[in-house]
Amino acid sequence: MTLTAAIVGPGNIGTDLLVKLRRDGAVDVTSMVGVDPASAGLARAAELGVTASAGGVDWLLAQDDLPDLVFEATSAKAHLANAPRYREAGVKAVDLTPAAIGPFVCPPVNLDATAGLPNLNMITCGGQATIPIVHAVSRIVDVAYAEIVASIASRSAGPGTRANIDEFTETTARAIEEVGGAARGKAIIVLNPVEPPMIMRDTVFCAIPPGADTDAVGASIVAMVDQIRTYVPGYALRADPQFDEPRDDWDGDGRVGVFLEVRGNGDHLPEWAGNLDIMTAAAARVGALLSERRAVTA
Amino acid sequence: MTGPTPTAKPVRLTDSTLRDGSHAMAHRFTEEQVRHVVHALDGAGVQVIEVAHGDGLGGSSFTYGFSLVDELKLIAAAVDEATRAKIAVLCLPGVGTVEDLRNAHGAGASVARIATHCTEADISAGHFAAARALGMETVGFLMLSHRADPAGLAAQARIMVDAGAQCVYVVDSAGAMVLGDAQERVGAVAAEIGHEAEIGFHGHQNLSLGVANSVLAYRNGATQIDGALCALGAGAGNAPTEILNATFDRLGVPTGVDVAAALAAAEEVVRPFVPRLPWPDRSSIVQGHAGVYSSFLLHAERAAVRYGVPAHAILQKVGEAGYVGGQEDMIIDIALDLARADDGPRIAAEEAP
Fold first, then answer.
1. Does residue A160 carry a pLDDT above 90?
2. Residues from chain A contacting residue B93 (CB–CB below 8 Å)
């Protein structure tokens, strides 16, 4: 049975998510909800035949038929206010904001462990792009330390991200540990204003023990990339994983370096905004997987 | 030698040997080196001494290189050694966090220098607010300033001042500014913020103009100038503190720093421990010419050895791609691209870099 869903927050993220969910068909979008009647996203939803309301969460929760899911694409502050209301109404929340009320979810890593919970948090764009790779390494060898660098086009970083850049580094670092499986995590984000805008790039470095089976690590990474490509077609390795020999200044560990490019699907957002695309694609993937589970258990 | 004229406005030198110099030392400063340098600078009368990983607080990493000694330990040692000088730290939002700033303040640092790419000042607001709340002196640092036009740079300086910066630096991270470039940018920033905040200049030697640009910056309103002893810093090095000081002395501009003591600090304290003095070699001139962030130099040299392609060719590509400070990971990516290209440049590993 297909799950029904509302999208709350008709901005660029919400609109891109709407386009993806409509195309995938795994989740039935029953409404798009905002607070501004002049919102372009609400107009787009109406054009697509989706019920659009500027009545906010009050309107949504007053409907007779509540959706199974709500995708929250507003702000952390709004989600903190809305989350208890969704929960009370029995609507599962997939949170694309940095509110992080629920556990971190990265669909190819830990959806099974978190699917039953009322609130799932989508981490950060850089987290969705890199944590699966950290996991791909840590499922083969112990990873004492993992570090990621996310480079994004300046134009793809909105005022919320800019005002709270530590939220990105701290949340992503924590998720590298909790979801990625590294003992210690670090995240770096760089905004680049070059024109034409650069496509999102991510680099993942994991410490690996001396004598690690590099063939197995490399194969695990490649398999994970293939899995992500099923829901983010523009996700690609720029080169084979790069292995470096153990070094004293790396605490005697070696290193694997993974160089990634995340080209967006160009649904509502431009292709270079791979950072925004991987968020909406991962959220859509969560919706699809939850629908599949419903189909199995129904 | 002429004495200071009564009208000459003083300039405050900030020495970055122990921060920008960290790049040239591959982030392997020892506590003893830090103590000796701080002792010499403080004794010479340098008022601000910057101590941190080259990429700022939290920079110790695979991407930028791991610090030999935890920077908080080095900061605390510097604070302990200084009798008059303030200890400054650098923080790049996106790399370092407010928490890192708090820890540095806890170790005794009293000047927070918050750095962003020259078009991204608005990611620094939270860091300025936190630094001011901690009671730290604040400095904004607009990296790769040559990449913004003077008006654009002034607008970014305004954002930093509104966020709490008490001084904003025009930072020539690539050593790419040629005289008028520095002059116009400092002038535009001074016109925008000069009545509310100070203006600074940070020069590099990739085109050998760090000192000349600093003098022009001073003449256009800058009152804080960065240097490093023996030019110890990224790329071809920084404007040398000892030369800046001697030059300003010749110009009759008071710095409060003793000329002979600064020369002794460079010659007798720093030079003996530097494994390789910064020098405008082919790669670092390419950095100045192509506008590449100076700290990419050693990373490009390492990638050159690893992948058998010339460092200067990597840096040229970095310039063409428009990569900014912090994107050191892209150096390996470019080296891999060059190594894959059938007709690309090659070097034998033993010739590298």
1. no
2. 165-166
8 Å CB contact of B333 and A147: no
Which token pair is B172? 């020539």
DSSP lists the bridge partners of residue B171 as: B202
Nearest by CB to B125, from A163, A201, A255: name it: A163
Q: What is the pLDDT of residue A294?
A: 82
Backbone angles phi and psi of A184, in degrees to 5: -140, 140
Do both B258 and B302 map to the same domain? no
Q: What is the pLDDT of residues B181-193, one digit of tens each?
A: 999 999 999 999 9
pLDDT at A143 over 60: yes
* Candidates A147, A164, A165, partner chain B, best to mutate (most B CBs within 10 A): A165
Q: Which residues have CB under 8 Å from A219's CB, separation 6+?
A: none
B19-74: per-residue pLDDT in tens?
Answer: 999 999 999 999 999 999 999 999 999 999 999 999 999 999 999 999 999 999 99
Residues of A annotated as catalytic are 125
**Domains of chain B: total:** 2
Residue B2 lies in a domain: no
* For residues B272-299, average pLDDT: 96
Whether B328 is in a domain gets the answer yes
**B203 and B335 within one domain:** no
The CATH number assigned to the domain holding B261 equals 3.20.20.70
Same domain, B69 and B159: yes
* pLDDT tens figures, B302-314: 999 999 999 999 9
pLDDT at B353 over 50: no
β-partners of residue A260 are: A202, A237
Contact B97 A166 (CB under 8 A): yes
Contacts of B288 (CB under 8 A, 6+ apart): B174, B175, B176, B204, B206, B207, B235, B236, B280
B23 is catalytic: yes
| B6 within a domain of the structure (yes/no) | no
Q: Which chain A residues have any C-beta within 8 angstroms of a chain B C-beta?
A: 147, 149, 151, 154, 157, 159, 162-166, 168-170, 186, 188-194, 198, 201, 203, 205, 207, 238-239, 242, 244, 249-250, 255, 257, 259
Residue in B64, B143, B156, B329 to test binding to A, most A beta-carbons within 10 Å = B329
Q: What is the CATH number of the domain that holds B336?
A: 1.10.8.60
Choose among A207, A198, A218, A208: nearest CA to A271: A198
| Number of neighbouring beta carbons within 10 Å of residue B7 | 6
Is B283 part of any domain? no
Q: What is the DSSP string of B119-163?
A: T-GGGGHHHHHHHHHTT-EEEEEEETGGGS-HHHHHHHHHHHHHH
